[in-house]
C-alpha cells in the first residue's frame, strides 16, 4: 500500500489523479473492512473537493479522517458518545482540521472512538467497534481511543488519521493495526476545538502509513519544519529501559522486539540497556486518580448529573474517580510530576532515543472485551496493559512514535521510540533510519 509521499509523486507525474484516489478511498470506506469506522461521512463533499484540488499542495487532495472529538464546522462534536449526539454544531473547524485542509487534505469523515477518549481498547457500545485491519479471520480490537482513525489508515481509506493521544491513544491503535503513530510534544500542536479528556496530557497528532508521512502530518499540524537529517543509525545513542516496559509481555511481542534490536544492531545502532527506577514511582504519584480522572470529571460533572445513564458504564466509572480528588491532591500531583520529569530527563539526557515495545500484547478478540459486566474484569486488565507503556511518555510530557516491527504473517507489534519533551526531531530522525533498517 503506497504512502502519501509515493502517491503524491504519482499525482505530480500524471500517473493518476486525486479524484481517482478519492473514489478508491471511498470504496474502501464503504466496504466491510470499515464497518463501524465512521460516525459520519462526507463523501459527496470529498469527491467535489478532490476534483478541484491542487496536486502541488502538500496533501494533494488526498483523504484524511478526523477523530469524532474534533470540531468540524457545521457539525456536532459527539466524541463517540450518545449524550452529545444532538449538541450544537461547531461554528468553525478545529485548528487541527483547518490546517490539514489548508494543506490540501480532504476530510472524508469523522471516525469512531472510545466514548470521550477514556480507554485504550477501542470498544464503543453506541456505534459498534471497528475490527482491527490486520486479521480478517478473527475480529480483534482496534485499540483506542483513536480506533476508527487507525483502521481508516490501515485499511487504505485514508492517508492520515487525525486523532489524539492522552495516554497512548494514537500509539496503541497504531501498534495493534501495524501502522505508524506519532505523539509529538503536546505543546507543539493546538488542541483547541477538540473535546478534552485531560487538558494536561492531551495531544493532537496523527497516524500514517510511514515515518516520512508522519513527519509531513506533524509539520502541518504543528506549523513547523522538522529537522531530521539523514545521519546513519550509528550516529545515534539509543537506550532500552528494561524495567516495567516488559512486565506481562507476550512471547510474540518479546520476539518481535528482540528481533528488531538485532536488526538495528546489524545496521550499526549503538544500543545500551539502562534501568529507570523512577518508573516505580508512578503508581504512588497517580494514586489519587491522576490527571485524566480529575480533569475529565471537571468537564463532565454537570453532564453526568443530567445524562449519566447514557454513558458507557466503563467510561463513567473512570470519570467518576475524579470526583473524590481534593484540591491539595491535585496540586501535589502537579508538583510530583514536575519533579519526576526533571529526574527522568536527567537519566535520558545522554541518549537520542529510547526503544521499548509500544504495548506488551497483540490485539485480543473483540468478543473477549465486548460491552457487558461479565467481561469487565478482562476489559480493564487489557486496558491497563495497553496503556501502561505509552502513558509513561505522556506523564513525561514527552514525544514518541510507534513503528510496526512484526515479521510477515505475524500479528502487528509496535516498536516505540521515545524521549522527553522537545526531542521530537531527534526521535523522528532515528525513526526514519529504524524504519529503513527493519524493512531491509
UniProtKB/TrEMBL annotation:
Enzyme Commission number(s): 6.3.5.6, 6.3.5.7
Superkingdom classification of source: Bacteria
Any one GO MF annotation of this record: asparaginyl-tRNA synthase (glutamine-hydrolyzing) activity
Keywords of this entry: Ligase, Transferase
Pfam families in the record: Amidase
Domain Amidase: residue ranges: 38-428
Keyword Ligase belongs to the record: yes
Protein name: Aspartyl-tRNA(Asn)/glutamyl-tRNA(Gln) amidotransferase subunit A
Native source organism of the sequence: Variovorax guangxiensis
Organism taxonomic ancestry: Bacteria, Pseudomonadati, Pseudomonadota, Betaproteobacteria, Burkholderiales
Amino acid at each position: 500500500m503506497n504512502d502519501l509521499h509515493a502517491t503524491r509523486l504519482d499525482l505530480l507525474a500524471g500517473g493518476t489523479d486525486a479524484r481517482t484516489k478519492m473514489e478508491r478511498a471511498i470504496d474502501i470506506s464503504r466496504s466491510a473492512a470499515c464497518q463501524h469506522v465512521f460516525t459520519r461521512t462526507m463523501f459527496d463533499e470529498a469527491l467535489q473537493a478532490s476534483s478541484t484540488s491542487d496536486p502541488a499542495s502538500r496533501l494533494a487532495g488526498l483523504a484524511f479522517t478526523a477523530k469524532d472529538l474534533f470540531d468540524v464546522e457545521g457539525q456536532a462534536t459527539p466524541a463517540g458518545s450518545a449524550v452529545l449526539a444532538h449538541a450544537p454544531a461547531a461554528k468553525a473547524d478545529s485548528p487541527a482540521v483547518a490546517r490539514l485542509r489548508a494543506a490540501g487534505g480532504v476530510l472524508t469523515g469523522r471516525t469512531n472512538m472510545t466514548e470521550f477518549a477514556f480507554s485504550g481498547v477501542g470498544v464503543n457500545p453506541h456505534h459498534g467497534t471497528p475490527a482491527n485491519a490486520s486479521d480478517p479471520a478473527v475480529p480483534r480490537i482496534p485499540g483506542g481511543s483513536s480506533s476508527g482513525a487507525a483502521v481508516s489508515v490501515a485499511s487504505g481509506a485514508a492517508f492520515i488519521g487525525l486523532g489524539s493521544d492522552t495516554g497512548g491513544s494514537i500509539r496503541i491503535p497504531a501498534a495493534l493495526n501495524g501502522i505508524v503513530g506519532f505523539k509529538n510534544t503536546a505543546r507543539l500542536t493546538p488542541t483547541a476545538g477538540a473535546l478534552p479528556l485531560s487538558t494536561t496530557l492531551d495531544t493532537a497528532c496523527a497516524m500514517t502509513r510511514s515515518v516520512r508521512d508522519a513527519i509531513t502530518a506533524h509539520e502541518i499540524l504543528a506549523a513547523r519544519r522538522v529537522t531530521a537529517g539523514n545521519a546513519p543509525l550509528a550516529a545515534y545513542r539509543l537506550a532500552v529501559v528494561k524495567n516495567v516496559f516488559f512486565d506481562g509481555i507476550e512471547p510474540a511481542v518479546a520476539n518481535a522486539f528482540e528481533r528488531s534490536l538485532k536488526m538495528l544492531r546489524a545496521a550499526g545502532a549503538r544500543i545500551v540497556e539502562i534501568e529507570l527506577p523512577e518508573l516505580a514511582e508512578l503508581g504512588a504519584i497517580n494514586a489519587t486518580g491522576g490527571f485524566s480522572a480529575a480533569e475529565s470529571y471537571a468537564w463532565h460533572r454537570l453532564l453526568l448529573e443530567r445524562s449519566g445513564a447514557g454513558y458507557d458504564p466503563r467510561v463513567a466509572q473512570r470519570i467518576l474517580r475524579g470526583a473524590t480528588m481534593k484540591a491539595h491532591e491535585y496540586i501535589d500531583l502537579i508538583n510530583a510530576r514536575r519533579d519526576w520529569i526533571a529526574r527522568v530527563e536527567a537519566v535520558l539526557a545522554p541518549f537520542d532515543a529510547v526503544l521499548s515495545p509500544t504495548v506488551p500484547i497483540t490485539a485480543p478478540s473483540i468478543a473477549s472485551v465486548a460491552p457487558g459486566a461479565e467481561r469487565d474484569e478482562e476489559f480493564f486488565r487489557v486496558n491497563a496493559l495497553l496503556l501502561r507503556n505509552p502513558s509513561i511518555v505522556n506523564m513525561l510530557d514527552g514525544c514518541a512514535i510507534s513503528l510496526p516491527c512484526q515479521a510477515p504473517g505475524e500479528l502487528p507489534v509496535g516498536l516505540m521510540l521515545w524521549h522527553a519533551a522537545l526531542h521530537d526531531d531527534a526521535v523522528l530522525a532515528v525513526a526514519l533510519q529504524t524504519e529503513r533498517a527493519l524493512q531491509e
